[in-house]
Amino acid sequence: MRRIIDVRLPAPLDRELDQLHQVEITPEGIIRQILPMATGDLTAGESWNGDWLSPRGIDLQINGGLGLAFPELKPSDLSRLIDLLDKLWADGVEAIAPTLVTCGIAPLRQALSVLQEARRQEQAGRCRLLGAHLEGPFLANERRGAHPPEHLTIPSLEALDERIGGFETEIALMTLAPELPGASAVIARLRELGIMVALGHSAAKADQAAVGFDQGVGMLTHAFNAMPGLHHRAPGPLGEACRRGGIALGLIADGVHVDPTMAVLLQRLAPDQIVLVSDALAPYGLADGEHRWDERVLLVTNGTCRLEDGTLAGVTLPQLEGVRRLAGWCGQPGAAIWSATVAPRRLSDSVSGVEQALLGQPLRNQLRWSRHAAEELHWDCAA
């Protein structure tokens, strides 16, 4: 039996401790047991010197990569999609909710069909598909951001069925504006289907957001962005989500979508609600420069994507780069690691804690995170 000692585990900001653990690994390389170590514990084993052990990342908002935009997927793109999933695994990501931004009905259904086939080809050592994240089309026009206005529509059960009928089991999450007429019925239907619902691209006030949360909305999509801000006289959706707790807060930690100071303040307000997402677009994995996005031009500079009119559209940075940046801003790496590797699992896999996520899993599929002296946080495969 292999034993690793002096291991730290990620935890939310208000619970991160310097507690060290010992991890027992079976001869087959499976994590068998994780036990806390007492101060002065002289247990023999391979010392990790305080490095962190975590699962791989789960990205609930990623729009494409390697030149592929998920809403534009065609059957001929299947092999390139598999290549992208292999790259995501190499970038430390175990699973994604491929995000389909607002588009026409026919392209949406075709993309869902391609993603369905890719899910059938799931295999070990490759990023898996959780089910799609539909970001739209039931969004507030005044908060649409980079979403094409011609494809936005008012929420209705008919409009929902037109888009997802026959693909209900292929959907993991839907982002909508809960204040729109007809949204309540759509939220109820999505929850009946077991589909998570997020508030996003919304003009909802705090009381309107509260109604949505009561109806089953359980997440904010890219908190702060495309929604009313956090104001002392108008707390908005974000204030209400923090006040009540239990609402996941998707956060893009690139330092552009959300200023680092605000990201850390949000982390302190709601330490166990932060879920790091990449919001990566099709140029993920490609060089900066000019790229195509549907009929529009996407300009990428230092990993930040904007439309030609300056509208912020997304990033090309890997999800775990957000971990590294947030760790540098808040000074507690374990909390940043937790937000990308454990927090999303509570939504996608009903995992309650890091030990549950790790036990019974191959060590080779997990991540080892290190930061020594003045070094920046970095990760590698755990075995």
Can you walk through the features of this model?
This protein folds into 2 domains: 2-54 and 353-381, Roll (Urease, subunit C, domain 1), CATH 2.30.40; 57-348, Alpha-Beta Barrel (TIM Barrel). The protein is globular and about 65 Å long. The model has no long low-confidence stretch (mean pLDDT 95). The protein has 383 residues and is of the alpha/beta class. It contains 11 helices and 22 strands. Helix 5 crosses helix 6 and helix 8 packs antiparallel against helix 9. The strands form 5 sheets. Strands 6, 9, 10, 11, 12, 13, 14, 15 and 16 form a 9-stranded parallel sheet that branches. A 4-stranded mixed sheet has the order 3-2-1-4, with no helix packed on it.
**CATH secondary-structure class of the largest domain:** Alpha Beta
Total beta-strand segments:
22
The major β-sheet equals: 9 strands, parallel
Structural class by secondary-structure content: alpha/beta
* Percentage of residues in DSSP E strands: 15-25%
- Total domain count: 2
Shape: globular
Mean of all residue-level pLDDT scores = 95
Distance between the termini: 15 Å
Q: What are the segments in which pLDDT stays under 50 over at least 5 consecutive residues? A: none
How helix-rich are the residues, as a percent range? 25-40%
Under CATH, the topology of the largest domain is which? TIM Barrel
How many helical stretches? 11
Radius of gyration from the alpha-carbon trace, in angstroms: 21 Å
CATH architecture of the largest domain: Alpha-Beta Barrel
CATH superfamily of the largest domain: Metal-dependent hydrolases
